[in-house]
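Audit log entry. Action: structure prediction of a protein-small molecule complex. Ligand: adenosine-5'-triphosphate. The ligand was supplied as SMILES and no pocket hint was given, so placement is left entirely to the predictor. Protonation state taken as written. Sequence taken verbatim from the request; no trimming, no tag removal. Recorded inputs:
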Amino acid sequence: MVIHSETAVIKVQQLVNRFGSHVVHEQLNLSVYHGEILGVVGGSGTGKSVLLRSIVGLRQPNEGTVELFGHNLPALSDAKRSQLQKRMGVLFQKGALYSSLTLKENVALALIEQAGLSRQDATALAMVKLALVGLPAASGDKYPAELSGGMIKRAALARALALEPDILFLDEPTAGLDPIAAAAFDRLLLTLRDALDLTVFLVTHDLDTLYACCDRVAVLSQKRVLVADRLAVVAATDDEWVRDYFHGPRGRAAQQAADTLAQE
Ligand SMILES: Nc1ncnc2c1ncn2[C@@H]1O[C@H](COP(=O)(O)OP(=O)(O)OP(=O)(O)O)[C@@H](O)[C@H]1O
């Protein structure tokens, strides 16, 4: 896999995040390039979700800058910031959908609230978005509780794509899915990235997803990005967590599966 462009669409510099005396990030730097799928990994509590929230503007960092398409997000006026934020779609790990709304209502809501569409237009467009992520038309009238985990993730993805973002943020999208549904989600992600020219910031613990989808991988460790590079370079990094993660039994299995797929 190749990095698609050298244009940084996200540039995080000298980022500091702390909660009271608990320092989560300390002078953290990270760039995300146009068209790539960047996997963000790290031990539990290393600050992957806090980083995601800082980039999308849901958390004001204590220090540092977060540039999006060349604009420093925290320094912008509310109007400008919200304009830029529309270029980002987010799929959160939990609470992705409103349980009291059907799938099509869930997707339409984003279009009504954020794009000002009429209910009728938003509903029609929501059906297009559901089809885009491979959901049958009949699923539009179903409630989240009536669907499998894989279908719910797809619907949440449809909602994240509702406003046609340039950058997609995914927080552990395959967590809780069985391996077949997870692999199907990985393939969908690759297809959508290519078809929609997306840049993807993907927080994950799923080694199979890293091998199947990611152009680069960033490892969060010791409050910083320890390394951000192609998978082979990251896996060869001299670090205890990296060794345990990539060269433990699950890491070896994921690599073998990826090698087998590449040979087919
Ligand atoms: N709102 C908050 N108030 C206090 N501490 C917080 C808050 N949000 C996050 N933290 C702390 O920040 C640290 C990083 O949290 P974060 O959720 O980003 O970790 P993570 O790397 O995504 O973990 P995991 O892989 O388990 O999801 C944790 O120690 C967490 O307890």
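Audit: result stored. Residues 96-164 form one domain. Residues 19, 24, 42, 44-50 surround adenosine-5'-triphosphate (CB under 6 Å).
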